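Example record used in the benchmark description.
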Amino acid sequence: MSHIGLVTPPYTGHVAPMVTLGRELQRRGHRASVISTPDVREEVLRGEVEFISVGAEDFPPGALKAFTDKQGKLTGTRAIRFIIKDMAKIAMMHSRELPDAVTRNGVDALVVDQIQPIGAAVALRYDLPYVNICSLLPLNTELGIPPWTMYWPYEETNQARVKNKIAYRVRYMLEMPITKAANPTRVKWGLPAVTADGSFSDLAQIVQIPEAFDFPRKEAPEVMHYTGPLHEYDGTDSVPFPWDELDGRPLIYATMGTLVNRKESVFRAFAEACVGINAQLVISLGNRGAKIPTGFAGNPIVVDYAPQLELLKRASLYIGPGGMNSLMHSLGSGVPMVLIPVTFDNPGVAARAKYHGVGEYLPVNKLTAARLRTKIETVLGNPAYRDNAARIQDAIRGVDAVGRAADIVEQAFRTRRPVLRPTPDEAPGQ
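Model output (structure tokens):
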């Protein structure tokens, strides 16, 4: 039995898949502990996984709410820089505290979120095997693929590769605070300084979007595995909801997730856009305990937090920024979408949704009720969007993603050898 540490930032979209994977590893007889800041303790313990706290001084209880309160009001580059600054602060804290957390608790293998570079450095320092979980879009540099921060479509042209190369340089500049926070620690520990890609595992990199939703990668590492979402779709959610207020019309579920959800004007635009459409709108503010605003056009159901999976099982359309949790819940339920990208990987997600014909998008800085209504009517009025979403749902449901991820982790840790991606005829579900 191994004691596996799962190193993750405290953001919901990163913690949730780690908890799901940790629970599966425990079921297989391993000891699994999520390693993160104090604010996610209850979420982890509620998921029946052990918790190891780090960063209590830098990130005391309440720090995550303060972060999301500010992050939720930002858009574009300002929002990216704010998140990067927080991740750099986490990297500096990990440099001081993660080695002790790992050694003191007898952790002998690590599963590290792809955006947490010090986790990889700790593993190398103490000769521990480690694999990566990519909770976002894959962060790996590939000149044929636009960086995950861009709306650009996929194009197989030399001109597109040149444009992508320039954009990757901009991405590296944006990520510089994380690199500057991590590399002095690596050098102090006798490890080479690297860019972000240099900290990725050479044993296994687990990507939780289905391959059917990504752009066609031709230079993916042999250890990159598209397992699909690390979520459980068949359970029920205990979040309260006024189910008796649903009136039988087609359901539109709208949320801005948990990180970019503090702009009331966005929610009001959602409501106004749905007036006159033969559908019932449910808006989740994504903020537990938030005060519910009143006076929304069209009288939608508005809640502070929603049983998302249960609602998406009934939904005809999902509206949201394209955050990974809501996106995977929507695709796993076969629901087409209109995305309102705000920042970080939202543009890359929107570009993929458009490419695969599962939805349309409208950047938040161009959001008006009229423009959104047009997008909603386009998606609801064309069954091809739902058919394409159902195709990706089949790809998700055809594979035991959590079980496959656990298999990869176990093989990597048992053999300490690279776990190579199966050929198409070997792939699960084929």
